[in-house]
Amino acid sequence: MKIVKHSGDIVEFNSDKLKKSLLKSGASAIAVDDILYAIKKQMYEGISTKQIYKMAFSLLKKTANSHAARYNLREAIRLLGPAGFFFEKYIARLFASEQYQTVTNISLQGKCVLHEIDVLVKKNEQISMIECKYHVGREAASDVKVPMYILSRFNDLKERQHAIFEKKDSISNCWIVTNNRFTTDAVDFAKCSGLNLLSWNYPEDNNLKTKNDTHYLYPVTCLTTLSIAEKDKLLILDVILVKEIINHSDCLEKIGLSPNRIKNVLKEATELCSYI
């Protein structure tokens, strides 16, 4: 059966690929087989992947809110927009989980011009600048112009010392992070130029998806027991990750949730982060 991707491309439906993504949600093999059966019964020639995703999400939610939340990860990261400010905070949290010191949203004077830097991190006496490329559209990709441009900024900044973590720090590494993907040319140029890339699916074994699952870095936008408005309120309170709710549940009172709803949110959060 032919299905239509987000990009408009028409491809053959791959049930094994869908099954794999459903299993990663944490649902049991029996539940996943039942969901696949239900989806196949409703499918038709030319159905969109978006519609298949909606069906899968709805059916997963019936097994457990946390399964649907985990399945919703990529969309949840996209909801850290629209400007990408909260995506930058999320990336800072990601590096902090790997024992980096972090600073966000800072301006530094280069040899030639002033630069606004999304995130700066330090580990083992090495300081890296991180530029975040947030995309609203799922099919958008960062092409070769992105690393070419950021390399020029990096070269301008590494020529000088800066007061970041200490009075005289030097930037020695550069990362480019996107919530979507990089084109092949962008990857090739970055490798050749010594730039580090991180995207939803790159590097293959250490990307945003795998890092998230390893360190339980699920953003609050994952949660199915909160409305979009309530998620936005948490982000404004600088509550970016689900596990931050578990450790500081009073933030749910601050956004006006009832005791019963707080109980439901915490249940989903603890299951999502495996705090059980």
UniProtKB/TrEMBL annotation:
SUPFAM superfamilies: Restriction endonuclease-like. The keyword Transcription does not apply. Gene3D superfamilies: 3.40.1350.10. It holds the Pfam family Mrr_cat. Keywords: ATP-binding, Nucleotide-binding. Transmembrane segments: none annotated. This is ATP cone domain-containing protein. InterPro entries: AF1548-like_C (IPR054374), ATP-cone_dom (IPR005144), Restrct_endonuc-II-like (IPR011335), Restrct_endonuc_IV_Mrr (IPR007560), tRNA_endonuc-like_dom_sf (IPR011856). Residues 1-82 form the ATP-cone domain.
